[in-house]
Amino acid sequence: MTKPIIGITSDTSFLERTDEYRGLEINYSQKVFSDAIFQAGGIPYMIPMNAGEYVEDVMSVIDGLILIGGHDVSPLVYKQEPRKKIGTIKPDRDTNDAVLFQGAVEKGIPVLGVCRGLQLINALLGGSLHQDLSEYEGISIQHDQKAKPEYMTHSISVDQDSYTSRLVDDQSLVNSIHHQIVNELAPGLKASAWSQDKVIEAFESTEDIPLIIGVQWHPEVLFERDPAHLRVFSDLVQRAENLKN
Questions:
Q1: Per-position DSSP letters for 48-108, written without gaps between them
Q2: I need a surface site. Which of 49, 89, 103, 114 has the fewest CB within 10 A?
Q3: pTM of the model
Q4: How far is residue 50's CA from residue 61's CA, in Å, rounded to a whole number?
Q5: Which of 101, 94, 51, 50 is nearest to 72 (CA)?
Q6: Is the distance from CB of 79 to CB of 95 less than 8 angstroms?
């Protein structure tokens, strides 16, 4: 029996390192995601940016889905106009990831959203975002850390009655590399972890299947330094295996 195949969304960029291939467009996702899935017992499968055009074929292959981080979510997704401090957006990526997310939900495939992935899931399900941290008056800690991403810089409080509490301990330390945060939480989602200034750091779906988990930090960068952060990925692989069988 094959191991669960975990689809990992991707972004596009351009090669710059060599003259021969300079300017060639590539699909990419950070290697740490595939490393984490492999260590968790799954098979990583990078999904190209145009996969929305053949989403049913992708869904026939994967057993779980990760929506990775990256550019700001376009405010048009949650029916807002862009404000002054919005960062770079990539609407084609929003569209592609939205189709993949919807395909996974319809098929009952478990989903994990990381950073931007959490934000996009919330927007797609009817929630909204603060386009910049400055829009939330309660901010008192640094959420867009200046330290290297593999360093953990702030603690989180975890709802002990939540599914998320199986994956991360209360008062765990996490990294923090974002300037957008959840504003209104979408119907069907419940917050399960918060920073000390009450920014939502994790949520989960209120439906039993498929279980959707979103985390605002980057456990894929932390698991080698702190193996406890691998539990986020081990859980996704296990949920995918349970549905597969």
A1: PTTGGGGHHHHHTT-SEEEE---SBPPGGGGT----TT---B-HHHHHHHHHHHHHHHHHT
A2: 89
A3: 0.95
A4: 16
A5: 94
A6: no
Contact 6, 240 (CB under 8 A): yes
Ordered mean pLDDT values, 10 residues apiece, the chain (245 residues): 92 75 81 97 94 92 96 97 96 96 95 98 98 95 96 98 96 97 96 98 84 96 95 97 83
Q: State which H helix or E strand residue 44 sits in.
A: strand 43-46
Active site residues: 115, 218, 220
Q: Hey, which residues does 15 pair with through a beta bridge?
A: none
Return d(Cα 43, Cα 240) in angstroms, integer: 11
Tokens found for residue 10: 């991707």
Length of the chain: 245
| pLDDT value of position 26 | 81
Query: In this predicted model, what pLDDT tens digit does every residue of 46-64 receive, in sequence order?
Result: 999 888 889 999 999 999 9
Q: How far apart are CA 119 and CA 190, in angstroms?
A: 13
Q: Which two tokens stand for residue 240?
A: 């995918």
